[in-house]
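Q: Structure tokens for this one, please.
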Amino acid sequence: MAKKLWKDVTEDEKMKMKQFVINNPPNTPLTPEYAASYLGVSTATLQKMRCEDTNGIAFFKPRPRCVVYYKRDLDDYLTDEPAYHCTAQYA
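A: Here is the predicted structure, written as tokens:
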């Protein structure tokens, strides 16, 4: 089955993803979709932050075309403790 576009994800699905993140410990790995729902932004915004924003959210690339966020890094970002990571580091 093909992955849903972010614009096709319902608000109910986004709320369920956000609740999943809230209910898990800080070391929980998350897909960009779960991270976006937790932060209240789009996946495109996260992608732009990864590529252009040196004050963006820390992320991990275990392999090409795979991005993982950790809840602790999202919480740091939300509490104004910015991470300084950008995709240029993975070049």
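A few notes: The first strand starts at residue 29 and ends at 30. Helices lie at 11-22, 32-39, 43-52, 71-78.
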